[in-house]
Amino acid sequence: MSPTPTKTRPAYRCAECGWTTAKWVGRCGECQAWGTVEEAGAAPSSLSRTTSALAPSAPARPIHEVDVEAARARSTGVGELDRVLGGGIVPGAVVLLAGEPGVGKSTLLLDVAAKAAAVSADVSTRGSGRPVLYVTGEESASQVRLRAERIGALDPHLLLAAETDLATLLGHVDAADPSLLVVDSVQTIADGAVDGAAGGVSQVRAVASALIHVAKNRGIPVLLVGHVTKDGSIAGPRVLEHLVDVVCQFEGDRHSRLRLVRAVKNRYGPTDEVGCFDLHDGGISGLADPSGLFLSGTRHPVPGTCVTVSLEGRRPMPTEIQALVAPSTLSSPRRTTSGVDSARVAMTIAVMQSRLGVNVAGSDVYVSTVGGARAVEPAVDLAVALALLSAASQRPLDPRMVAFGEVGLTGDVRTTVGVQRRLAEAARLGFTRALVPFQGAADLQAVPGLTIRPVENLGDAADAAAQAAATGAKQM
Fold first, then answer.
1. What phi and psi values does residue 182 have, to the nearest 5 degrees?
2. β-sheet bridge partners, residue 14
3. 239 is a domain residue
4. Using CB atoms within 10 A of its CB, is residue 40 exposed (0-12), middle (13-18) or buried (19+)?
5. Are both 138 and 206 inside the same structural domain?
6. For 339-371, what is each residue's pLDDT tens digit?
7. For residue 365, what pLDDT is reported?
8. d(CA 125, CA 210)
9. H-helix or E-strand spanning residue 183
């Protein structure tokens, strides 16, 4: 009696996360995306199919006998990128760097490739160096050569290839046996064995899988450039983020030189570190101390300014808040903000009017940060309130004072995270006074050269700021 043939039924797969279902639905049951479920071919309906066992190539070993030296992170030569990656890049790791067009992704990775090539050149003098391979699919080799010359990234151990075919790219890897592979970008490479244009869901999945296979088998770290959609998410299937080891987001305003790199996913290190870079005409360079970009540099008293210390991940970032209160002839006065949360500024203005009696209802109010910094965490509320009070009264604050804390609707100053790190950064920059929330202040450690003043509410903070301004004026 012949066996009954296994019946098949259509299978449908989500293009974003890879979730499968037996029937078509308009919305993915896993990632809740609309219109991403499409037919993926036929799948057997029988659940009794099994896979025969194979003998392993090597027996399983006790975990304490596994060698960890091969997985040690190695420096990329760029300190700020090493900070984000957790000390460097691990051999065999696949890093996806995503960002908007023109933010500086290619410039950063070309600089990383040149520094890695320089290290390889030093090793090659001892007879064991391997080159660095940079594959571009968006530009010609001559265009990349011009950028490398402009940023000083020319090195004989840096190999450059302009390819868009996956098979040819893998051939370059076989021929060069690089110590580092950079692919710019994963959306421009196509696999001839897979249907669809480059950048499509199936193509991106196939290219990423092939590059990850090469990285793991040969121990080659791979840096991939990824495009983003108009809403800021990484283009392509969501499964791409699950396949790679590290996902970094490259952020920056076109009108500012500052660029930030954040680790959204990191299998080898923390995800709350931030790398700061300065993008200029000569290329891109790391900023170990970015305070100069966010402080105006003036140390004479000016009404409407207050310095705070915000946190980007675990990194303290000093930021100067500037406020201006001007008479208005409009029936609805302006409320304009830049770099701060407009909703929290409006709430702070309402608390000032209700709890302190400061009336700015008939005035235009402008609040901004210096240098294009973004300070949107609640801890900057106190600095915003003090800057507004100073601007409304035309009385300058002490320029050597910092303030941070969340202002509640009752006017109280609530505690925030990372107060000790903020105080240490303020002291390092030469500030002598700090207004901090009263709650938790007893557990703070003393910081040399910094006078810490706990405040319970906004009125207490205004009095402390006035006293600090009077004391500072006498000392000047």
1. -120, 125
2. 37
3. yes
4. middle
5. yes
6. 999 999 999 999 999 999 999 989 999 999 987
7. 96
8. 32
9. strand 180-184
Q: Which domain holds residue 27?
A: 9-41
Residues annotated within the binding site are 99-106
Judge contact between 208 and 244, C-beta under 8 A: yes
Q: How many domains does the chain have?
A: 3
Whether residues 247 and 367 share a domain: the answer is no
Distance CA 448, CA 430 (A): 11
What's the length of the chain? 476
| Residues 392, 273 share a domain | no
Q: Which single residue is written with the structure tokens 């950064």?
A: 425
> Is residue 57 a contact partner of residue 206, using CB atoms and an 8 Å limit?
no
What gap in Å lies between CA 196 and CA 191, rounded to an integer? 9
The greatest distance separating any two alpha carbons of the chain, rounded to the nearest whole angstrom, comes to 105
C-alpha–C-alpha distance, residues 388 and 365, integer Å = 8
Are residues 131 and 25 both part of a single domain?
no
- The torsion angles phi and psi of 386, rounded to 5 degrees, stand at -65, -40
CB 131 within 8 A of CB 156: no
Q: What is the spatial distance between Cα 169 and Cα 161, in angstroms, rounded to a whole number?
A: 8
Could you give the residue ranges of the DSSP H alpha helices within 262-353? 291-294, 342-351
In tens, the pLDDT along 221-278 reads: 999 998 887 777 777 777 788 889 999 999 887 777 888 898 999 998 888 888 889 8
What confidence category does residue 3 fall into, taking pLDDT thresholds of 50, 70 and 90? low
Residue 280 and residue 314 in one domain = no
Going by the annotation, the residues of the binding site for ATP are 99-106
